[in-house]
Design brief:
It is a single chain. This protein has about 180 residues and is mainly alpha-helical. It has one domain. Helices cover about 45% and strands about 5% of the residues. Strand 5 and strand 6 form a beta hairpin. The protein is globular and about 55 Å long.
């Protein structure tokens, strides 16, 4: 008899609003529909459903770490969205939906993570230091961060007197300047 093998279970998305067990802002069907409308969807379409689900769950986890304006709709909900008690363009957030910009940010981050798990932070390799010689990776990480910042700016709040968005924008500017030199 051989050694026992570990079989990873398929990732299952729960995108039920206000659920205590929700793990994604969006469903796989919503993500697939979104990527049908973008100029190039091959980097999404060529992934298995399980990989897409894992990427959507990971993207949601990352976005869910941000602080947002307004209040959670239910104290027992697992995720920070949906929210209420905040207005965007004079329209109050409601507990019956998640804003499209939050969903778009989830889709785009999921696509990036499905193709490169280091797409947000870059990789430190075995030295613990970032490799500045890999400028293409930094440029793609910067482009992703800019896109996420544009989508999430309306909803993000201040942390310790500093805007997270401002801090990330400054980081992106420094990286862009560095690679322009």
């Amino acid at each position: 008899m051989g050694p026992p093998y570990f079989c990873a279970m398929a990732a299952t998305i729960n995108a039920t609003l206000k659920s205590a067990t929700a793990n994604s802002f969006v469903t796989l069907a919503e993500a697939d529909a979104y990527f049908e409308t973008v100029p190039s969807s091959t980097q999404w379409d060529n992934k298995s459903d399980d990989n897409k689900n894992r990427a959507l769950i990971s993207a949601t986890r990352w976005i869910d770490t941000l602080n947002f304006y307004g209040d959670r709709c239910d104290t027992s909900q697992a995720l920070n969205w949906p929210r209420n008690n905040y207005h965007v363009d004079r329209v109050e957030l409601v507990c019956s939906s998640i804003p499209n910009d939050i969903k778009y940010a989830t889709y785009e981050l999921a696509r990036a993570l499905a193709n490169d798990t280091d797409s947000i932070t870059g990789t430190t390799g075995d030295t613990g230091l970032y490799d500045p010689s890999n400028s293409e990776r930094w440029k793609s990480s910067t482009t992703l961060l800019v896109k996420l910042l544009e989508l999430l700016t309306t909803y993000s709040t201040f942390i310790l007197g500093f805007s997270l968005i401002s801090a990330l924008t400054a980081w992106v500017a420094v990286v862009r300047i560095k690679f322009a030199l």
